[in-house]
Give the backbone structure.
Amino acid sequence: MSEPTGLHVEIVTLFPELFDSFLAASLLGKAIASGIVRVDRTNPRDFGLGKHRSVDDTPYGGGPGMILRVEPLAAAIDHVETQRGRAHRILLSPQGLPLRQAKAAELATRQRLMLICGRYEGVDERVASLYADEILSIGDYVLSGGEVAAAVVIEVVTRLVPGVVGQSESIEDESFSSGRLEYPQFTRPPAFRGLPVPPVLLSGDHAEIERWRRQEALRRTHERRPDLLVAHPVTEVESRLFKGKSVPGGGKSG
Ligand code: SAM
């Protein structure tokens, strides 16, 4: 296994306190405590304008709500990079490219990421033009701010950083890693309210268990996310697992 390389995340947010418990708990908390992951938070309010440290203003052209101004965000980003160096800058926005596992894997290879969180009706477009290396969305819905989206990016990316998740195996088999949803999982008891665990999982036959898991992963992907089969069609190996039966999303196996 490769040595932990570490990841440094800079969050630019008007609500740094929202991340307190998130960064302290579970795998991420441990990764931060052990130094594999470092997270710094910077508040554009500290770079706000005038006596009231204002960060927002009404939109040019009219319309509802307030827009985050470019100057406090620009000053916060410049400050972070003067102190700690250039980061790969990600602006969180519902208008960005959807975050996917492959993108997360790419981001996990970087050393410094900056997550820029918007609020209110959004962010002055010049932040995107001048600062964003990329714009990411966590889904086709609108949050009130970028903080939850930043937390999603941090969780998805850091668990791919070597050393954060204990057994590297547990990330390799996961949903989306190979264009399939993960197979169904069970633990004790062997039966609950009339629902038994599939006998093959209790058989001790590791080859059969592996075969069953790959079949079920394909079946589940076909049922719940057929779109994934378009990008990652059924393979020869998967077809053979079905031994003459009809293959979910792939016709009949030979
Ligand atoms: N008026 C904007 C629009 O329609 O595109 C939405 C602004 S939203 C209320 C405020 C902030 O929340 C955004 O600037 C962005 O940082 C964040 N945000 C909202 N939905 C998001 C999503 N799906 N993915 C990432 N960030 C999101």
Summary: The longest strand covers residues 88-98.
